[in-house]
Amino acid sequence: MTKHKCINVALGDRSYDIIIGCKLLDEAGILIKPAIRGERIIIITDQNVAPLYLNTLKLSAEKEGIKVKEIILPAGEQTKSISYFEKLIDQILALKIDRKVALVALGGGVIGDLTGYVAASILRGIDFIQIPTTLLSQVDSSVGGKTGINSKNGKNLIGAFYQPRLVIADIDVLDSLPQREILAGYAEVVKYGLINNSEFFIWLEEFGLELCAGNKEYRQRAVLKSCSSKAEIVAKDETEQNMRALLNLGHTFGHALETETGFSNKLLHGESISLGICLAFDLSLLLELCSKSDAVRIRNHFSAVGLPTYLSDISDIDWDANTLLNHMLSDKKTENGKLNFILVKGIGKSFIAQNINPKNVQIVIEQANQQR
Ligand code: GLY
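Output (structure tokens, whole complex):
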């Protein structure tokens, strides 16, 4: 087995390991074997990932005596829907499974979220394993048990907290990702530094550019740090009653921006988080919670790697502060019409801020639309 790192998500009898390293796909069978109850797995993947990695994973599992079936779904957000949820369940049940079978999600957030929710639902819950193939899913969506699908009424409105039995993050698979996707994932990496770890942010300021350019040692270190931050938070607050909400830094703004762009390729989730974090710092600055130099430093870092930091960086979109505000007011995280944000008292000092005056939100949106 090649050199890899392991982080445990401590959740009692639902605890599990996140294994992080290079060439892990070749050795996935050895890792999966002790994590499953039976000897069968069903790999769920998509049409983009299957040609690249399905065979390697399959051979590695079969080498350990695991019986493997696979289901290949279309790639893209539309697969995270009720109709694919139903189709996938029917395909799995047609394979005559028992409760000892495990699903293995091989892909990005769409495949991981859908597979996890199907695993939570089928036969009242079967095991599942996450093998995330994007930076974003390695550092965020594959860890912590948020599973689900989209509804016509909004993103991720149907779902369950359902933890995987194992997460395998192979750093090598990131080589096949388009650079835009690497950067989108990187925004979530930076988020961990800003939430509660200023040292990590300082490290990213020094090594982030090389990380984004392909340095594997730095990528592995960043995935490790991000996952250990998330594991610690999830172990303390699995169902987001309080501190897990810190992981939503930049998401209230970001989600409104994504709603406006129809969750399309015009703005990737991670790009909306880069903008959303900048706006969260702007709002913190306006409320005199953080210093101007902190807000500038965040923008400088995101723009140095090539992420958007002003709304005007996203071309062909006419952002309107009122419309964005309305999206925020109808967000599932808004309670009784009160706007809640994760704000900061500085880098690494985030907190939950409740009942923010909408006027201040409008001001920072308007500023970010004009400035350059
Ligand atoms: N992506 C935020 C969370 O898992 O809580």
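The pocket of glycine is lined by residues 140, 144, 146, 244, 247 (CB under 6 Å).
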